Amino acid sequence: MLKEDVKKLLFAGTVIPAHPLALTRELQLDERKQRGLTRYYMASGAGGVAIGVHTTQFEIRDPEVNLFEKVLAVASDEIGRAALKRPFIKVAGICGLTEQALREAEIAVKYGYDLGLVSMAAFKTQPESEIITHVKKIAEAIPVFGFYLQAAIGGRVYSYDFWQQFVEIPNVYAIKVAAFNRYQTLDVVRAVAHSSRSGEIALYTGNDDNIIADLLTPLPF
């Protein structure tokens, strides 16, 4: 279950940036600068950080790179050292098909992450019902932060029916919409608003072309 102070902040609304990966000139992890970035986000007033979630970090999962656990561990350690007097949300990226995703969820839980941002990009042609089953399994391991990734960079378009099923999954607490499409964004908003869990799921925008509009536009649902 999500910690109460973390849940309160998540629902109040905050900024959770995707943490960049700091590399040396030799393209190796620069742990000193990586820790410095984490401290910067805490000092700047961000409400949390998301680790292993962006295009700069997909390769950390490759066996020859093998940095996924290291990067999660470094950020968690640095946040722990800060001993903040306020909640700071730790989000871990969860990628891959179910077997890989469950391993990543276990690592995230091991290092005290609050939520897993679940990428569904690995499911290229599988039916939506299979993806719903996948998310249900992940939600049994860690609280879920849903993620609607734009189709232009590896995501796919999901039906309104898919989101209706998605939002009914227990332990889903938030959805980041980064579809870069107004109609697809509204599908998610409408599904949450009309669900039995409408007061239990926070909506976050990753629509970089419409951040302000997403935050200010009243929606008649």
From TrEMBL:
One of its GO terms (molecular function) is 4-hydroxy-tetrahydrodipicolinate synthase activity. The keyword Lyase applies. It comes from the Bacteria. Transmembrane segments: none annotated. SUPFAM superfamilies: Aldolase. InterPro entries: Aldolase_TIM (IPR013785), DapA-like (IPR002220). Keywords: Lyase. This is Dihydrodipicolinate synthase family protein. It comes from Dyadobacter sp. 676.
